[in-house]
Amino acid sequence: DQSRRKLIPCFADFYRTVREIIPFDRQEELSILDLGAGTGLLTGMIAADFGNTRFMLMDISANMLAEAEKRLACFGNEFAYVVTDYSQAPSLGGPFDLIMSSLSIHHLDQMQKRELFAKVYTHLAPGGLFVNADQVLGETEEIERIYRKMWLSQVKANGATEAELQGALERMKEDRMSTLSWQLASLQDAGFRKVNCWYQHYSF
User: Fold this and answer.
1) Contact indicator for 93, 123 with CB cutoff of 8 Å
2) How confident is the model at residue 6 (pLDDT cuts 50, 70, 90)?
3) pLDDT at residue 146, rounded to an integer
């Protein structure tokens, strides 16, 4: 989590936008699913805003979710922790008022993304919302080169160590990023009606 603040040059705006676009009243009793929840970073931010909300955190790593449970112990919300590969799970549970994810879905290939978007749609309650804060592939090879060049420049300026940078580059070998235009179209194909990109900073 400490490295993430260095490796996401737009960290504050990136996560603030997620919090700002959630349209529900903060006193509502909501049900929220966090896909690829990791150490609970995003869930913690949303729990601070919505005190009456029940959360389900899904992640493939039991160790990550154990850290999330420690992080979220200070909140009065109800939390459920599910160790699973959400891309393979036949059901996500719910229905949920909000399904959200941050920096996780880009690990899926296009077929898996398309299947996940359809599954997310069917697990939302009426009036529900899906928010995916993630990375995208440049629409062209030239744009992608600019994205990568700017990211390297900015993370170095943020003080990322050589070890942090090399670790990030190694993890990025597992990325299966898709373009923004493809993802917006795929969300519409899945049934979502009001599809938009609310924030963009290069690839984020």
Assistant:
1) yes
2) confident
3) 97
Task: Count Cβ neighbours within 10 Å for each residue of 178-187 and write b for 16 or more, e otherwise.
Answer: bbbeebeebb
Does the predicted TM-score (pTM) go above 0.90? yes
Burial level of 82, CB count in 10 A (0-12/13-18/19+)? middle
Residues 165 and 174: their CA atoms lie apart, in Å, by 15
Nearest to 96 by CA among 61, 45, 130, 46: 130
Show the beta-strand stretches assigned E in 4-95: 31-35, 54-59, 78-83
The two counts, helices (H) then strands (E), for the chain are: 8, 5
Q: Give tens-digit pLDDT for 166-198.
A: 888 888 888 999 999 999 999 999 999 999 999
Which two tokens mark 8?
A: 């996401």
Fill in the amino acid letter for 141: E
Residue 119 CB neighbours (<10 A): 17
Which residues fall within 8 angstroms of residue 88, CB to CB, at 6 or more apart?
A: none
pLDDT band at 163 (very low <50, low <70, confident <90, very high): confident
Per-residue DSSP letter, 179: B
Site of tokens 């941050």: 102
pLDDT 10s digits, 149-161: 999 999 988 888 8
Q: Is 107 helix (H, G, I), strand (E, B) or coil?
A: helix
